[in-house]
């Protein structure tokens, strides 16, 4: 955990997009101070599975951080914020549009207070343009960034993908921007503003769909299993590979919802594959069949090819079929359910599903760190309780005395104002 040692982050982010970013940076060794409103990040209480315990939604996105609660709607809370700003290398937020300005802390003001600090902001649509004032959640970003219109089957509705490309995907983009800006600030002494819009991040992740969008003006998309003649926008194409090689999800024995294997009929492997499956299908000369002999033929007749492969696969489970395909060098992978993955030896061996303990909820599991640094492996520690480190941070980072802390406390710097009587 040495890579970002000595980097301190004032993390005002909430929900998913920002916290996944700061969690990654914490796993790389940064001291991440989760700066929360007195009620805490709303996800602490969302989709709770254990009464009165921080939800998995929160614990899975906020590991290795320290939590301080500060009421930014009080003058004393703002003083604490300013003091922390001066002691941090990065400040990050993903509030709705205008929230930080309402606090009185624009980027200009923050830059003035600490010229070296790097500021990261996630917004649904960035700070400029007709959509700038809108809030956004994951699926709004998937809808507006081009992911939903290109996901699903052609004659069905658009679909969201299970991968959180709008939130976590944006968090990854932000992490890259922050590290670049930090590198520059260390060289020049001057911080800068790093903005990532969720819509932009999703568009970036859909890049190859823009390849196809432009190809449509000159050609049909021969690798798609659906007709593309005359289309003006990249269509939904089910489980088509979307790349230069043909691919599809093949249903296997015993026919359950996750009994599929994704198979890529790479150009180089067709002969071997056809020679293996052909005899069992009563087609010993499949490899030489003119309907499939060249990749262009296979593209044209791919639905027939998938039907043949599926017929063969119906006698095997996805794992058995994988064992047949691996020696033939056919790129393939069984569709893994969360249950499959939770038990998977490979995943466990790579620390990608790790067990943790938590004072409120007991044992629980988190998805591990997907970026492996040879000299700085991540050590995953539980998420903080709300305000667990308030005093520690005030003392160790800001050198506040007990007396100062006491005064701030009674002035309401760390707590929510009492609810007005109805
Ligand atoms: C996610 C989102 C839709 C949530 O909307 P929301 O719950 O209304 O939250 P907002 O960020 O708009 O507002 C937060 C409120 O908490 C208040 N708050 C936050 N931190 C506070 C603190 N430390 N002390 C006091 N108040 C605080 C803010 O002042 C604001 O209240 P206001 O509207 O009275 O100013 C919105 O934050 C958003 O669009 N973010 C940008 C895009 C994004 O990251 N989306 C993905 C989330 S996974």
Question: Can you offer a commentary on this structure?
Answer:
There is one protein chain. With 422 residues, this protein is an alpha/beta fold. Helix content is 34%, strand content 13%. The protein is built from 17 helices and 11 strands. The strands form 3 sheets. The protein has a 6-stranded parallel sheet, sandwiched between helices. Strand 1, helix 1 and strand 2 form a beta-alpha-beta unit. The longest helix is centred in the middle third of the chain and has 21 residues. The chain binds coenzyme A (COA).
Q: Strand order within the widest sheet?
A: 3-2-1-4-5-6
- Small molecules bound in the structure, each named once: coenzyme A
How many strands, what sense, and barrel or not for the largest sheet? 6 strands, parallel
How are helices and strands ordered from N to C? EHEHEHEHHEHHEHHEEHHHHEHHEEHH
Q: Compute the number of helices.
A: 17
Q: Which stretches of 5+ consecutive residues score pLDDT under 50?
A: none
- Calculate the mean pLDDT score and round it: 96
Shape: elongated
Number of strands: 11
Gap between N and C termini? 50 Å
Radius of gyration: 26 Å
Question: What percentage of the residues does DSSP assign to strands (E)?
Answer: 5-15%
* Fraction of residues in helix: 25-40%
Structural class, by secondary structure, is alpha/beta
């Amino acid at each position: 955990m040495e890579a970002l040692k000595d980097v301190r982050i004032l993390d005002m982010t909430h929900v998913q997009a920002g916290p996944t970013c700061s969690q990654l940076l914490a796993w790389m060794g940064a001291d991440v101070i989760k700066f929360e409103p007195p009620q805490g990040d709303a996800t602490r209480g969302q989709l709770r599975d254990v009464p009165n315990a921080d939800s998995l939604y929160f614990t899975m996105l906020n590991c290795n951080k320290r939590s301080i609660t500060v009421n930014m709607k009080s003058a004393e809370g703002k003083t604490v914020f300013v003091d922390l700003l001066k002691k941090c290398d990065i400040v990050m937020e993903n509030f709705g549009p205008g929230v930080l300005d309402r606090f009185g802390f624009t980027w200009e003001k923050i830059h003035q207070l600490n010229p070296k600090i790097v500021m990261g902001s996630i917004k649904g649509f960035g700070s400029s343009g007709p959509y700038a004032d809108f809030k956004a959640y994951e699926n709004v970003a998937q809808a507006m960034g081009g992911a939903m219109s290109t996901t699903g089957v052609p004659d069905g509705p658009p679909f969201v993908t299970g991968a959180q490309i709008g939130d976590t995907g944006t968090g990854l983009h932000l992490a890259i921007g922050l590290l670049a800006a930090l590198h520059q600030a260390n060289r020049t002494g001057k911080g800068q503003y790093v903005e990532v819009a969720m819509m932009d991040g999703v568009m970036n992740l859909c890049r190859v769909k823009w390849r196809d969008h432009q190809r449509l003006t000159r050609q049909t998309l021969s690798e798609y299993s659906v007709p593309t003649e005359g289309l003006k926008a990249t269509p939904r194409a089910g489980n088509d590979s979307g790349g230069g090689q043909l691919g599809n999800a093949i249903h296997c024995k015993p026919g359950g919802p996750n009994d599929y294997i994704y198979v890529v009929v790479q150009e180089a492997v067709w002969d071997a594959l056809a020679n293996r499956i052909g005899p069992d299908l009563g087609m010993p000369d499949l490899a030489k069949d003119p309907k499939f002999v060249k990749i262009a033929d296979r593209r044209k007749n791919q639905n027939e090819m998938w039907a043949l492969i599926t017929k063969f696969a119906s006698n095997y489970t996805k794992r058995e079929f994988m064992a047949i395909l691996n020696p033939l060098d056919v790129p393939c992978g069984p569709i893994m359910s969360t249950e499959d993955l939770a038990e998977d030896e490979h995943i466990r061996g790579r620390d990608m599903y790790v067990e943790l303990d938590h004072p409120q909820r007991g044992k629980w599991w988190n998805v591990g760190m997907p970026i492996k640094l040879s000299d700085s492996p991540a050590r995953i520690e539980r998420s903080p309780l709300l305000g667990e480190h308030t005093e520690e941070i005030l003392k160790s980072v800001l050198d506040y005395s007990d007396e100062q802390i006491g005064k701030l406390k009674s002035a309401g710097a760390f707590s929510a104002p009492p609810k007005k009587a109805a």
